[in-house]
Design brief:
By secondary structure, the chain is an all-alpha fold. The protein has helices at 3-21, 28-35, 39-46, 49-61, 66-70, 78-93, 97-109, 111-137, 146-164, 175-190. Helix 1 packs across helix 4 (49-61) and helix 4 runs parallel beside helix 8 (111-137). The longest helix is centred in the middle third of the chain and has 27 residues, at 111-137. The protein is elongated. InterPro entries: Homeodomain-like_sf, HTH-type_TetR-like_transc_reg, HTH_TetR, Tet_transcr_reg_TetR-rel_C_sf. Residues 27-46 bind DNA.
Length: 196
């Protein structure tokens, strides 16, 4: 087995066990066994369980390419574009719901992990704020605090993701219904008022 393949197998095994058991309960022996490698191999590749966690966070949160999925698809029509952004974001992240909780827990304990995780929303917020500014400059939407609105938009989507993992029958709305309401809310806020 090549070094790269061994690393990938260890990362995938770690992600699986971190999801199932949480960071603390997932032992390096269990991870190595699940990956089908010797326990010492894990340490040769990563040095420690914490380094393996960091590497798996990087791999996991950058596995989908959200931004390239949007490339060339945005139309500068606010409602259509927000719907597309929300749909792609939920498609990429709904499967990661259990990792969201793990990220938050670990981020509180480790500044490095916190910084890794914080980079993701910074990129998302910057992307959407720049999109809003572009529409504003084109005269298509009203002015607003675009950075804050971007955080609110992705915040609502993240809330949907987190609540889908809770065993509550009240969380039975479909992703499409949620996206519709979310987009309608932001469209109402940003839609340029026609002069009377």
């Amino acid at each position: 087995m090549t070094k790269q393949l061994t690393r990938e197998r260890l990362i995938q095994a770690a992600l699986t066990l971190f999801k199932e058991k949480g960071y603390t309960a997932a032992s390096t022996r269990d991870i190595a066994e699940k990956a089908g490698v010797n326990h010492l191999t894990l340490f040769r590749h990563f040095g420690s369980k914490r380094n393996l966690f960091r590497e798996s966070v990087i791999q996991h949160v950058t596995s989908g390419d959200f931004f390239s999925g949007l490339a060339g698809k945005l139309t500068c029509r606010l409602e259509d574009d927000l719907r597309l952004i929300a749909k792609l974001y939920l498609e990429e992240n709904l499967e990661k719901d259990s990792m969201f909780w793990l990220y938050f827990t670990e981020a509180k304990q480790d500044p490095e992990v916190s910084e890794l995780i914080a980079e993701i929303p910074r990129r998302l917020h910057g992307f959407l704020a720049a999109y809003f500014l572009k529409l504003y400059d084109q005269g298509k939407i009203s002015n607003g605090n675009f950075q804050m609105l971007s955080r609110m938009f992705f915040g609502l989507l993240n809330q949907y993701i987190l609540f889908q993992s809770l065993p509550d029958e009240a969380n039975d709305e479909s992703a499409d219904d949620f996206i519709h309401e979310c987009v309608d809310l932001f469209r109402s806020k940003l839609e340029k008022e026609e002069p009377s």
